[in-house]
Amino acid sequence: MRNPLAELLFVHGGGAESGRLDRLVGALRERSISVWAVNAASGRRRPAPDGPAAMQDLAGALGALADRARRGPPLILGGHSLGGTVAALAACADTLPGAERCAGMVLTSTPVSPLPRVEGLADGAPVGLDLSRLYTPGSAAREDDRAGSVRPSTLRPAWDRLAERLPVLDLPVMFVHGMSDTIVPARHNHAWAGRLKHAEFAGFHGSRHDVLNATGHRRVATTIADFVLAAALDHAAG
């Protein structure tokens, strides 16, 4: 895309792939927002790395990818479900590469607090979140050698980190949630939006966990686009 007004670096949910984001990508491109998504079709087949820092490692890889696009319009970090957890960890890092471009964060159906049900879903088999193949629609994949899967044991430390750092994060945040989500209850992130300095909550009635592809997906995409463009404009003006 030539002369985008903003860029969104977005991580899909665990065990999914970036094709699930096609509706969102198309809608945002119509609003002159360039989207960098993660293609993790092979992520579920990769062995998980050892050690308790897998989620933090993924967040570090996301930060490195943000740094790769250092030049350009304001950058918004985002993710769906566990991908949003990775994006939030990246935004809360002590040093985020390319931080001067980061203008905000979009979290859809994202667990940012401990949820036993989510830990149970990840228990046993690691959840694939492979950041090795970053792509924009219609372009060649870009390689990055830092990738991995999420072990259940790494979720709790990740949530502990967010509990400490997210309340002091000086970035606008948009929580987008299906009000009928039975995996990550909307009330959790509605409460988070009330705790943060610059946060909004957009709830969509009748939508479940896959809010990006629910019946009202056009309204969801419009809400996200409005937030991204407003955050980018404020960042550019500041």
TrEMBL record:
InterPro entries: AB_hydrolase_fold (IPR029058), Hydrolase_4 (IPR022742)
Keywords per UniProt: Hydrolase
Pfam families found in the cross-reference section: Hydrolase_4
UniProt GO MF annotations: hydrolase activity
Annotated ranges, domain Serine aminopeptidase S33: 3-117
Domain of life: Bacteria
Statement: the UniProt record of this protein carries the keyword Hydrolase: yes
Protein name: Alpha/beta hydrolase
